[in-house]
Predict the structure.
Amino acid sequence: MQKLSAHILTVLLILLTLAMPASQATAAEVLIIGDTRLKLVAEIISGIRKTLKSSITVYSSDDVKGTLRSVVAKEQPRIVIPLGRGALAEAQNLPAHITVIYGFVLTPSALKRPNTTGIYMATPAREYADLLNRHLHSIKYVAVVGSGEQLRLLNGGSKSRLDSYSVESSIELVDTLKTLSNTDAILLLPNAQLLTPATMEEVYLLSFRKRIPLLGISERQVRDGALLALVADLTDMGREIGEYASLVIRGAHADQLPPAPARRFDVYLNTETAKKMGIQVPDGLMRAAKGIVP
């Protein structure tokens, strides 16, 4: 009788557990914070789920704005994954024992919070050098223009064909481009303060006037006149974030996982710009391009 009662009690406990909402039955090991209305964010989350097999709860950035700390106290996750600069700012105030792995951030800014790492979106200059080496041999020298911090991050250890130009203002950037002569292409590193709409208009004019193609950093820049751009594959970026999270769950510390760029990039190509610049686009590059303008 006692054995039967114990068995019934066990069954009841199991049924009660199954009846509970997932958030009550087992706390998620990982919280993802991001603007879930954005297709780009959805792509990253899809990638995370492909490599991270732990329990995941997703919150919209709007739902946790100003309350993320209390949400984390309730959910008790081991890892928080903020997607986007705003979500990352919210995560800076979380307790230090929680690992923060960010994504959907252009470049990693100086973060004071410990136990933080992530995968950033900006494309290292060496990726452009490798692409040109494979497909566009006529472009031998590239002027890489950006702030000193960006050059250290994105042009470190780059190929000899990349020449660095450090600028700290939009005016200095335009003046630098005006003086360029012995270069075959221009790569502007991503910086919202430097690359204002007015500055970019002048950059495109200079590019066509001097017949020096611009290597863009986004599909939009290619549509606006850049020759090509390398853009992070967001689904694969999600896989990278998921791999980092899996390593942390298995015992790794964020200090052992330094911030890193994406490892796969999509090519966008403007064939009209190539034609105006007198650049022959090989079939291999056409096949490699995810998007071709026009």
Remarks:
- The two ends are 80 Å apart (CA to CA).
- Residues 128 and 161 are 10 Å apart (CA to CA).
